[in-house]
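During the second year of the project, the team shifted from modelling isolated chains to modelling whole assemblies. The rationale, set out in the original proposal, was that interfaces cannot be judged from single-chain predictions alone. As a representative example for this report, we include one of the complexes processed in the last quarter. Its constituent sequences, exactly as entered into the pipeline, are reproduced here:
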Amino acid sequence: MNQALLDQRVRDNRRMLVKLSVVALAMFGFGFALVPLYEKICQALGVNTLIAPDRAYANTQVDLTRSVTIELDANAHDLAWRFRPMLRHLTVHPGELAQVEYEIVNVRETPVTAQAIPSYGPQNAGQYLRKLECFCFTQQTLAAGETRRMPVVFQIDPALPKDVNTITLSYTFFEVAGASKE
Amino acid sequence: MLKKLAIGVLGLALCGLAMAAEWNLQPAASKIADDIHGLHEWVMTLVIFIFVGVFGFMFWSIYAHRKSVGHKAANFHENVGVEIAWTVIPLVVLVIIGWPVTKTVIAQKDTSNADITVKVTGFQWKWGYDYLKGEGEGISFVSTLSTPREQIEGRAPKGEHYLLEVDNEMVVPIGKKVRVLTTAADVIHSWWVPAFGAKQDAIPGYIRDLWFKATKTGTFRSQCVELCGKDHGFMPIVVRVVPADEYTRWVAAQREIAASVADDPDKSYALDELKARGEKVYAANCVGCHQATGKGVPPAFPALDGSKLVNGPKNDQLALVLNGKPGTAMVAFGKQLDDLELAAVVTFTRNAWGNRAGEAIQPSEVKALRK
Amino acid sequence: MSAVLDNHGHGHGRVHDPHDHHGGYGGIMRWVTTTNHKDIGTLYLWFSLIMFMVGGVMALVIRAELFQPGLQIVNPDFFNQMTTMHGLIMVFGAIMPAFVGFANWQIPMMIGAPDMAFARMNNWSFWILPFAASLLILSFFMPGGAPGVGWTLYAPLTVQMGIGMDLTIFAIHLLGMSSIMGSINILTTILNMRAPGMTLMRMPMFVWTWLITAYLLVAVMPVLAGAVTMTLTDRHFGTTFFNAAGGGDPVLYQHIFWFFGHPEVYIIALPAFGVVSQVIPAFSRKPLFGYASMVSATTGIAVLSFIVWAHHMYTVGMPVTGQLFFMYATMLIAVPTGVKVFNWVATMWHGSLTFETPMLFALGFLFLFTLGGFTGLVLSLVPVDIQLHDTYYVVAHFHYVMVAGALFAAFAGVYFWLPKWIGRMYDETLGKWHFWLTMIFFNVTFFVQHFAGLAGMPRRIPDYPLMFETWNRISSIGAFGFGFSQLLFLYVVLKAIRSGEKAPERPWEGADSIDWTLLPTPAPYHTFETPPVIEEAP
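Output from the structure prediction step:
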């Protein structure tokens, strides 16, 4: 094969190498850029409503024509926490502000840190249950034997589908491991 | 004539067989389950019809178009009209199936206006029931397999409800809409009652709702239906449907039991009392791996009889039982058993078989050790 | 450095002994260093057969325990390990490599190419596999044993497992890499190295199905890698993707896994369809009916396979709209699949049929795969699936489509192409025995499982209530029969290699792809070193 063709081959290969390296670096950078990008997309699409703090509706009419029963549930599978809602259920009108309290008791001899994760039944009713004050996703540290009452202030969005009239709000407390070494 | 008779008899026999328990879905005890029976029969009939039709052609071809009978191959190999026909016709058939099915799907999801709400929690390896709302509110208990180990290991004849019996059944009244919230304490389980046509995964950290309304009284049995570890096959679900007045009586009885067995964690218990209680806890939770003889199945399940850990410092054994051993089948029983039960079972193991510790572990010691 | 070989031109290759000039190596090193597509195809096929036997033994352990109610043979933990590894080994170690073996052997010969595009990468694609398989087997010997989580590896159960789980994750990464590299090879070869005149619409159907399958593989294997990597980090590096405690969700794992998992079953099925599309026309002495329609149907199945994944998840608590969407999309796949079945029957119709072993397996496929497809249609209906999800009905369904479907097609392929590969015929009588024994015992094993599932028997349980006893006994008896019948297959293959009758140039009179018409039997070590010119549709 003559020299000119070989040189051309070398140049072509080098060009290809440059292109491929650029693509590889770009994809790597894309991986990093995904972190802020993901947040922006979720905000724009209204996904990931779990962590976003809810804002009260201004000027919301209370819909007196319908009532919604809210059931309250509490789970703490590590039995050393006692975790319960002060009320098992209550009835509200959409748009009305309501407040309930949950009680946690640390029955251990040492401080414990845990955080609560909410869950809703039916699942998509969750987006209509606007929590204006709640203790979810916030680490709670309780001293040994301490009891604490924590409020949840919420409002049902009047846009709740008409066929839903019971919503269960459930919290599960998970211990945050390693956060409470004495 | 004889042929028609034979076909008729065969058809009836098949229908009879289809009704028999082992061949088909379990008898329905709710309208949804009934609808599902109907849908299944309808789809099966259609499917069998199509299957016989299509393979009628294939078997005819196998018979009539053999080279060995001298059949010569034709040369055709495409036909747009036929292709369109056998694309459109199945589409139409699918729409015909889809329409009634859609209605049932929507009906199954409507959990509104329930009379009773029960939260069902899946544990490794038992179910917890909490009556959250409606008649029976506040009742809470754990439901564990009650088939004796000897039956499972073949040392005793198996009972009628082998692997389908529990110590505490879920009880509901007939004709009332029951909303069930499923969740789990550790891994994914799944709660199912075939007679009601109700199944839902139990996902740790989340609640999901489903509903059923029983139309028949009786006891309906089933099993956990999502692989959840070693004893996935040993955590049955038993629901007893009773008339309304019997339900009211059951609720009252449950409340009495709850009041009387409230465990006082600071109380001191006698050795014999702890050993007796501990034996029961052992039978329900430990015997599967460590065996009734305490000999275990080494190396996977260590022996407790004569074990260094069980005969050594009590806090070491307590810590292991409380926290489990990651990477093995030994789960953290601190999450499933209360201080009294743990104290009892550890006391039992330290004083059973060849082990002679001679001392009791009190619930307060367990409490102190919970990190 | 290419030797000056006596090139007989027109792509016929050299006529003398195909076993010389193997890159200068003999013995073991030949196989370790080979870049020849035929050698690599052979390696994949033997590996697949060995893995099939290993996975088969695990199945027999499972069925032995399930023969009677009660725990007799293994403990529940080990039973779960058996079900998990049986699944992983059969899917990733047996059935997928078998079809890759066919791809390697057949694709270059069917399109007039001398070898695969990336011959050296081809070698590595294979040699990763025994290493990955060893990791899977090694997991049994780790503390805690192999993972007992089901081949679907759901979180958070996987987080509880011992180090065997990590070995499995590593093995899956390797298996995925092998498949991805293999697919890149297949895609490049098919798209770039077809002989002049071999247009896409003239390619044998087998090549088309692999073209489409290769796209599916590169699309979804990385997704599986993602799912198991997230499991790995949840296990060891403090992430909580699948753990509600940190804001994660176990169901997320299921979405990611099944986004891979559903196309995966079509990755297995499509090459099987391709084999059957070669065998049925050959033994009907009639061209494949509706070639263009078959291509579109296969493409349609592949595209639809991406939007149906959540039909594996109807019971997780999905909103109604989700259930309905996935139900409709899944039902829709029945249409192109039906089109294919009708086209195969139409190929036979008014053909001139003979029933040698390859045709028997192809017809067995046609009948039983369709049966499995119908139970799939039943399962696609949400309310019915609520009763059948995670029961033996599902086990029966997927064994019908994977075993009576894919495995039967693989057997058909071996019997069909063995003469081309080794120049010898297999014993036709023994082949027929293998078929009938397999056919009968397969149905004894799996047909009754439909009833067990309907009656309510859950999956993945080592012991069961008494009402399921009859079906389990029958199924276990069938399983042992099925297992031992496969030893006959091993014998037939070995006998053919050692002492099979010399094959004629055209053992199958109706087979007319260019691997049959333009190449000698057996095919020489190097073929089509000069590309043939294809003048008319083969």
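The radius of gyration of chain C is 23 Å. Chain C has a mean pLDDT of 94.
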